[in-house]
Write a structure and sequence with these properties.
It contains 5 helices and no strands. By secondary structure, the chain is an all-alpha fold. Helix 1 runs antiparallel to helix 2 and helix 2 packs antiparallel against helix 3.
Length: 98
């Protein structure tokens, strides 16, 4: 496990973010780095809830999950990947009070 992932586990997101960005900016043919980045920002948003600041992190996560879903090669795969998108959208709506 990398240093940024260890920092994430203990809630040191601001310190981990630059390391995570560097680690996830490599070529990513299978989408594993997209997932790692999306999970990082979603976890950070979860840690900030119920504050409005969580929305910013959820939106960063949502962007990555949407990108990952858009790379689907079939309808079933796309539907499965949209579960992540919809989960984060639900979290945003909860924080916004909708």
């Amino acid at each position: 496990m990398s240093d940024w992932q260890e920092m994430m586990k203990i809630g040191r997101f601001a310190e981990a973010e630059p390391l995570m960005i560097e680690a996830t900016s490599q070529p990513d043919p299978l989408g594993d780095l997209l997932i790692a980045k999306a999970e990082f920002y979603e976890a950070w948003g979860d840690a900030l809830r119920p504050e409005d600041a969580a929305i910013e992190k959820y939106n960063l996560s949502l962007e990555e999950w949407r990108w990952f879903a858009s790379c689907s090669t079939s309808g079933g795969e796309g539907t499965a990947r949209m579960l992540n998108v919809n989960r984060v959208l639900d979290k945003i709506n909860e924080v916004e009070g909708e």
